[in-house]
Amino acid sequence: MTNVSAAYGGQSVASAQNYDLVVIGSGPAGEKGAAQAAYFGKRVALVERDPVLGGASCNTGTLSSKTLRESALALSGFHSRELFGVDLAVRRGATVQDFLRHERRVVSAERDAIVANVRRHEIDTYHGLASFADPHTVRVDTEGEEPVFLRGEVILIASGSSPQRPSQFGFDHNRVWDSDQIVNLGFMPGRLAVIGGGVIGCEYACTFAALGVDVYLVDGRTELLDFLDRDVWAVLEKAMIALGVRFMKGERVLECVAGEDGVSLSLSSGRAVEVDAVLVAAGRVANTAHLNLDAAGLKADERGRIGVSEHYQTAVKHIYAAGDVVGFPALASTSMEQARLAMVDAFDLKYKKSAATVLPLGVFTIPEVSVAGETEDSLRAKGIPYVAGRALYDANARGKIIGDREGLLKLLFREHDMKLLGVSVVGESASELVHIGVMALMLEADHSLFIETCFNYPTLGQLYKYATYDAMGRPERGVEGEMAPSESSSLSESAS
Ligand SMILES: Cc1cc2nc3c(=O)[nH]c(=O)nc-3n(C[C@H](O)[C@H](O)[C@H](O)COP(=O)(O)OP(=O)(O)OC[C@H]3O[C@@H](n4cnc5c(N)ncnc54)[C@H](O)[C@@H]3O)c2cc1C
Questions:
Q1: Which of 99, 150, 421, 444 is deepest in the core (most CB within 10 A)?
Q2: Lining residues, ligand 1, CB within 6 Å
Q3: Could you give all domains of the chain from N- to C-terminal order, each with its CATH number?
Q4: What's the CA dihedral at 332, 338, 343, 344 to 10 degrees?
């Protein structure tokens, strides 16, 4: 080994502490990957640059945004409005403290749970910035201290991602936020511009609109959330407009001027928007800039992402990468699974050999949307003939009880044998309801599963049966479906 001591101020790579696994990052991928290996008896070190464990998922992203959404629903009396036909909201002037209180509690409890999990698995935690010293050695820098060197037989890069910050926005101003900063907002805006109509932008637009904030959703595209079937998007868009979200599609922000009293946005059409605050949700970039990937023999792409195999192995055999750092789908749920799978491969754990074949995607707008498997677009692209069956919440007893008038569950079956290929749900509890479809897709089930299953009554689960009846009754099936008028959808548009 070359003498690197001089370069590291007296410390040496040769004196590195040895581990079976060194993990960089303590988000869902890092935590679960570390725990998986430790559970099977491996000696594990976990390096985290933040003072707290949990990554974006726990501290700024998933949990925070979902808890803030729930707080907005509660504070605005959202559900009561639908049930009683009058606006019962007593807290529409909710303060920032009201809005953030529950989020702080949930995040803090989840951080504690992560620390407990790490301790239970006897994982050594190092707080500091990790970078590669060589392909097997990770250097950990902590301000004011000598660097520490950790040698791993295997290394897992789980360094996640950070919000992209377009140059026209001055993020040091207290009225201009990215999706990390919004969880520390200092005041409740009366008018908010959300820049970017992707998942995060749409979710926050709904959360703030539910609180009575005037929300402008600005996006350069004319089609948003294009991974959803357009009929599903249409339900969501209508609901978002009803909630008060003003869509400004096909618009780019040319200039953002933030002052003491507000923010002025100049848009590409020539229009101007005056708001109290701006949330920029313009995508994310992988956290690899500080990793000194060259020293490991690795390269990242232009968005910082690291390429991996189906087992999440990088170009260097003993280095694995999982979670947002490898790109799509960049979800907490998939990040955990990828890391577990990587560890199974790295240590030959003979425990779990492949990633889930079906990955559900949840969008926590108001209402929620969730999809799994194929969409109409993807089936058309593959040239697979299909039949769609739909069931409306409004025609379902449980849907009536909870007051969801717009919700829709849609199933896509392969035409010739009625094998289930895809499920989309938009409406209350969509992110839970989709799991029935996920299990059916995992089991490669066909329509008979839903016909033969007895669902509780009155429940949204029954929508699966009635969407199946709807698909079976379609003319192209040549089958007289067992349609029950009170429960079935009135939609009859053909899909093949
Ligand atoms: C607003 C928002 C809402 C979201 N909602 C959902 C949702 O509803 N459902 C869902 O499944 N997903 C959601 N996501 C996505 C989810 O948060 C991410 O996919 C997930 O956090 C990725 O996990 P990860 O472990 O790859 O990285 P992260 O959670 O980003 O964790 C990476 C960790 O690595 C640390 N790190 C980085 N570089 C270094 C270094 N050099 N040295 C030491 N430590 C380092 C970071 O500090 C961080 O703690 C949301 C994201 C956002 C932003």
A1: 150
A2: 24-30, 47-50, 55-57, 61-62, 65-66, 129-130, 158-161, 179, 200, 287, 290-291, 323-325, 330-333, 335, 362, 364
A3: 2-66+97-163+285-347 (3.50.50.60), 176-282 (3.50.50.60), 367-472 (3.30.390.30)
A4: 130
